[in-house]
Design a protein that fits this description.
By secondary structure, the protein is of the alpha+beta class. The protein has a single domain, classed as Ribosomal Protein L22, Chain A (Alpha-Beta Complex). It contains three helices and five strands. The strands form two sheets. The protein has a three-stranded antiparallel beta sheet. The protein has a two-stranded antiparallel sheet with strand order 3-4. Helix 2 runs antiparallel to helix 3. It starts with a strand and ends in a 7-residue tail after the last strand. The mean pLDDT is about 95.
Length: about 120
């Protein structure tokens, strides 16, 4: 059974969030939480929040054992980009892109002690 949690419109670049989600994809849920605790990246807090939400969904909504869960997929999608102008010399302007992300974590239960 798959359990999912999504955080939308997170104000972090998708490229930066993808580096963190790649660390935990395919790992058991308990091990993924430990990896995130010791990772020094700016997006760890947001990814940890989504992972804990998925674990809470599995426990409360489906009654699954948290020790038997692993991260099947950790996805980062591109959200809307806010465009801001920064004045430059001689009447010109540069565009600053404030990117946002949609972070999705899908958990699944081990089948007979193995992934799959």
């Amino acid at each position: 059974m798959e359990v999912k949690a999504v955080a939308k419109y997170i104000r972090v670049s998708p490229l930066k969030a993808k580096k963190v989600t790649d660390l935990i994809q395919g790992k058991p849920a308990g091990e993924a939480v430990e990896i995130l605790n010791f990772t020094r990246k700016g997006t760890v807090e947001e990814v940890t929040k989504v992972l804990k939400s998925a674990l809470a969904n599995a426990k409360n909504n489906f009654g699954l054992n948290l020790d038997r869960l692993y991260i099947k997929k950790a996805l980062v999608g591109k959200g809307p980009t806010l465009k801001r102008m920064k004045p430059r010399a001689r009447g010109r302007a540069d565009v600053k892109r404030r990117r946002s992300s949609h972070i999705t974590i899908i958990l699944e239960e081990f089948e007979n002690g193995t992934k799959g």
